[in-house]
């Protein structure tokens, strides 16, 4: 989902820009730059994921004026790269979306926060929980981090967007519930399926591409 029209007041754009900058700074600080420079495989995954996401986000459907939906794919990218690099990859994809005219540059921070950062952080949180519980079956990683993580990340992003639209008075609560929130569960299923299938395929055929996967825990 993404915003295609400038719907928000200036103060909210400034607030989201500050939040965006804070998360981006955190991602920069938590990135192992030496590891990134030395691992061509990770570089290829980062830029390759950005291109795939940039193409995937072109395929969208409009709900209300200025509001569209699309598959995120951020959960699979987060499990591949870790949340800091997933944020960079997602923002590069968002640059592609802006260049192609799908979303305005003025909403880059808002869309970056909703489309990229919230899903990446939610997926990271679920992955940390899965590690903390210390499941010993690799299906737990696939189901909780892949399928469930994707659905939860989209739900969090959708609720964040609805909250912003409601608090600023862009749409009233009745409109948001009847034209968006009641359809939100339908968005979770394809998102969970797409990301879950990608994570399952990588875990079976190329587990080395999942930077967040600790294979020693499932032996």
From TrEMBL:
Pfam families: CbiM (PF01891)
Primary site of residence: membrane
Subcellular localization(s) per the UniProt record: Cell membrane
Keywords: Cell membrane, Membrane, Transmembrane, Transmembrane helix, Transport
Membrane topology per record: Multi-pass membrane protein
Transmembrane annotation, as ranges: 12-29, 41-59, 71-99, 105-126, 138-167, 187-210
Identification of the protein by name: Cobalt/nickel transport system permease protein
Organism: Marinobacter zhanjiangensis
